[in-house]
């Protein structure tokens, strides 16, 4: 119509509405886009689902030349490109899935200025051949996605990301924008230093996801607990269930299916066509529960995921936060639920100790696990602890299990001393290696083949722990592990007194532990 200013130059806001169909920018998007539009550099820390993509897509469309998007997720590139093409943006990718001719065609389009956004992996970008190509093209900006991959102490380090520092010298006049959903202080510092972005403006979003209710409960019969959680609170809802192994992905999916939940498996070992179909069904149909390894989810954009459940302990808080962040992107009440138990702690320790990699790498993995455990065992607000991990102070949230139902505490000093004494006796007098089963046998004075054979009943600690049930002992041991009072070491996860055992053994401290909450007591929070 006559009133429309058809010829006015497009602005970030007009692109937002005309191309992407949204009315307004969210959070810091507008400020970030302004910074990049004016040729400045930006380091962007924004939680999963916060809307990072538009921060480089819009400047790539508006600025002269092509925006180069560096991403480690080769498998997702074709989907990302297809999504952009669907809204009329000229996008392409360069990766090993293209044959020679296809790659050549993309390169020609790039040189001809016919592409707005070009995706590639870092190892491709830093090839001398690629850098030459880019020098001959007009580049609007470099967007370095998943920038935490440059952090050597992070949970997702990729050596190729270090090579991206060459961009600072090779293209001094092209603005760079680095983006990540990981916002620990050390990762932030490493991104700035290693990518040589000392002149960048920093945009740190609020990491809180107030609509997500965090709940972590002791695992007893994990799958039963999961089923109860889904059927009582999320019947018919879309959700993601994370498991550690491919095997447990498959058995859990089958089992849920058998119990009336529309569940589909997803892991890297499945046939590509099956994987694709399951992902598509999850995205398109309503109320599908996808059971997956952590291979699932990066780049998946489904706004109405109502719950994310963990049946196994994540390896780090970053991982946990990223995975749970896939719930409730639409802002409606959602649940992050997890069951974890003694076995998880011992297994993960064992995996780390068995793993390849340097001493430093192992120490790093252990410290990631320890902070994850501390979150699981905390008796105060989980959100406060999560956000503090990301450098953000906050007040108790009222929408996590510990806020809604503060755990009861009990004085466990004497039981802890008994357990530690038992570990010490077993090592001293039997010099054998023990897992938790044998320790409970001794504490409870349980005669069976393994205890009789090892003459455990002759030990002075035999049967000193009959005041607690095995389940209670498991809870004690799990909490002692999480606090470093007991440690699981070596290939077999042998239990030994940990670095914090001394004061407990000597009676210098009172040790208060939490009474395990009843499994899946639904904690109904008010959406905030
Ligand atoms: P991130 O990469 O930070 O995880 P995305 O860029 O994938 O997040 O965006 C998450 C979702 O939010 C997408 O569906 C996206 O289209 C949507 N989105 C982003 N910005 C806006 C906005 N300003 N208004 C409405 N929706 C938006
Ligand atoms: Zn809370």
UniProtKB/TrEMBL annotation:
<protein>
    <recommendedName>
        <fullName>DNA helicase RecQ</fullName>
        <ecNumber>5.6.2.4</ecNumber>
    </recommendedName>
</protein>
<dbReference type="InterPro" id="IPR044876">
    <property type="entry name" value="HRDC_dom_sf"/>
</dbReference>
<dbReference type="InterPro" id="IPR036388">
    <property type="entry name" value="WH-like_DNA-bd_sf"/>
</dbReference>
<keyword id="KW-0227">DNA damage</keyword>
<dbReference type="InterPro" id="IPR001650">
    <property type="entry name" value="Helicase_C-like"/>
</dbReference>
<feature type="domain" description="Helicase ATP-binding">
    <location>
        <begin position="33"/>
        <end position="201"/>
    </location>
</feature>
<dbReference type="Pfam" id="PF09382">
    <property type="entry name" value="RQC"/>
</dbReference>
<dbReference type="InterPro" id="IPR011545">
    <property type="entry name" value="DEAD/DEAH_box_helicase_dom"/>
</dbReference>
<keyword id="KW-0479">Metal-binding</keyword>
<comment type="similarity">
    <text>Belongs to the helicase family. RecQ subfamily.</text>
</comment>
<dbReference type="Pfam" id="PF00271">
    <property type="entry name" value="Helicase_C"/>
</dbReference>
<dbReference type="Pfam" id="PF16124">
    <property type="entry name" value="RecQ_Zn_bind"/>
</dbReference>
<dbReference type="InterPro" id="IPR004589">
    <property type="entry name" value="DNA_helicase_ATP-dep_RecQ"/>
</dbReference>
<dbReference type="InterPro" id="IPR014001">
    <property type="entry name" value="Helicase_ATP-bd"/>
</dbReference>
<dbReference type="InterPro" id="IPR002121">
    <property type="entry name" value="HRDC_dom"/>
</dbReference>
<keyword id="KW-0413">Isomerase</keyword>
<keyword id="KW-0378">Hydrolase</keyword>
<keyword id="KW-0238">DNA-binding</keyword>
<keyword id="KW-0233">DNA recombination</keyword>
<dbReference type="GO" id="GO:0016787">
    <property type="term" value="F:hydrolase activity"/>
</dbReference>
<keyword id="KW-0234">DNA repair</keyword>
<dbReference type="InterPro" id="IPR018982">
    <property type="entry name" value="RQC_domain"/>
</dbReference>
<dbReference type="InterPro" id="IPR032284">
    <property type="entry name" value="RecQ_Zn-bd"/>
</dbReference>
<keyword id="KW-0067">ATP-binding</keyword>
<dbReference type="Pfam" id="PF00570">
    <property type="entry name" value="HRDC"/>
</dbReference>
<dbReference type="GO" id="GO:0003678">
    <property type="term" value="F:DNA helicase activity"/>
</dbReference>
<keyword id="KW-0862">Zinc</keyword>
<dbReference type="InterPro" id="IPR010997">
    <property type="entry name" value="HRDC-like_sf"/>
</dbReference>
<dbReference type="Pfam" id="PF00270">
    <property type="entry name" value="DEAD"/>
</dbReference>
<keyword id="KW-0547">Nucleotide-binding</keyword>
<dbReference type="InterPro" id="IPR006293">
    <property type="entry name" value="DNA_helicase_ATP-dep_RecQ_bac"/>
</dbReference>
<feature type="domain" description="Helicase C-terminal">
    <location>
        <begin position="222"/>
        <end position="373"/>
    </location>
</feature>
<dbReference type="InterPro" id="IPR027417">
    <property type="entry name" value="P-loop_NTPase"/>
</dbReference>
<keyword id="KW-0347">Helicase</keyword>
């Amino acid at each position: 119509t006559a009133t429309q200013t058809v010829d006015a130059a497009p602005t970030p806001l007009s692109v937002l509405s005309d191309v992407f169909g949204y009315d307004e920018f969210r959070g810091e998007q507008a400020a970030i886009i302004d910074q990049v539009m004016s040729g400045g550099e930006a380091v962007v820390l924004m939680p999963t689902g916060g809307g990072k993509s538009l921060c480089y897509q819009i400047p790539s469309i508006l600025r002269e030349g092509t925006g180069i998007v560096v991403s480690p997720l080769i498998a997702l590139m074709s989907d990302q490109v297809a999504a952009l093409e669907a809204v009329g943006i000229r996008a392409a990718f360069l990766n090993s899935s293209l044959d020679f001719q296809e790659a050549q065609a993309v390169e020609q389009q790039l040189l001809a200025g016919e592409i707005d956004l070009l995706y590639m992996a870092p190892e491709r970008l830093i090839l001398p051949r690629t850098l030459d190509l880019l020098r001959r093209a007009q580049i609007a900006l470099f967007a370095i996605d998943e920038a935490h991959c440059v952090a050597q102490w992070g949970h997702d380090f990729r050596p190729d990301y270090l090579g991206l520092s060459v961009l600072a010298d090779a293209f001094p006049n092209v603005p760079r924008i680095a983006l990540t959903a990981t916002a620990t202080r050390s990762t932030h510092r490493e991104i700035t230093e290693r990518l040589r972005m000392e002149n960048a403006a920093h945009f740190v979003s609020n990491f809180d996801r107030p609509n997500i209710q965090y709940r972590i409960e002791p695992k007893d019969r994990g799958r039963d607990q999961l089923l109860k959680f889904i059927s009582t609170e999320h019947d018919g809802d879309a959700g993601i269930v994370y498991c550690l192994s491919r095997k447990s992905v498959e058995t859990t999916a089958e089992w849920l299916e058998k119990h009336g939940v529309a569940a589909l498996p997803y892991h890297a070992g499945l046939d590509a066509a099956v994987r694709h179909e399951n992902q598509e069904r999850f995205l398109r149909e309503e109320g599908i529960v996808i059971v997956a390894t952590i291979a699932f989810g990066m780049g998946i954009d489904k706004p109405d995921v109502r719950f994310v459940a963990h049946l196994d302990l994540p390896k780090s808080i970053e991982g946990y936060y990223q995975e749970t962040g896939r719930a409730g992107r639409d802002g409606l009440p959602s649940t992050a639920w997890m069951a974890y138990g003694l076995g998880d702690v011992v297994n993960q320790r064992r995996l780390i100790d068995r793993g390849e990699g340097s001493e430093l790498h192992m120490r790093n993995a252990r410290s990631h696990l320890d902070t994850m455990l501390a979150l699981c065992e905390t008796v105060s607000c989980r959100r406060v602890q999560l956000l503090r991990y990301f450098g953000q102070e906050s007040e108790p949230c009222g929408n996590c299990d510990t806020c809604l139902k503060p755990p009861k505490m009990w004085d466990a000093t004497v039981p802890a001393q008994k357990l530690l004494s038992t570990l010490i006796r077993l090592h001293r007098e039997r010099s054998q290696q023990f897992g938790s089963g044998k320790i409970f046998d001794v504490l409870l004075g349980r005669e069976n083949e393994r205890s009789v054979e090892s003459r455990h009943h002759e030990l002075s600690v035999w049967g000193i722990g009959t005041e607690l049930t095995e389940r209670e002992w498991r809870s004690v041991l799990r909490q002692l592990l999480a606090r470093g009072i007991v440690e699981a070491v070596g290939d077999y996860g042998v239990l030994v007194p940990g670095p914090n055992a001394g004061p407990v053994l000597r009676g210098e401290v009172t040790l208060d532990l939490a009474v395990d909450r009843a499994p899946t007591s639904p904690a109904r929070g008010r959406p905030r």
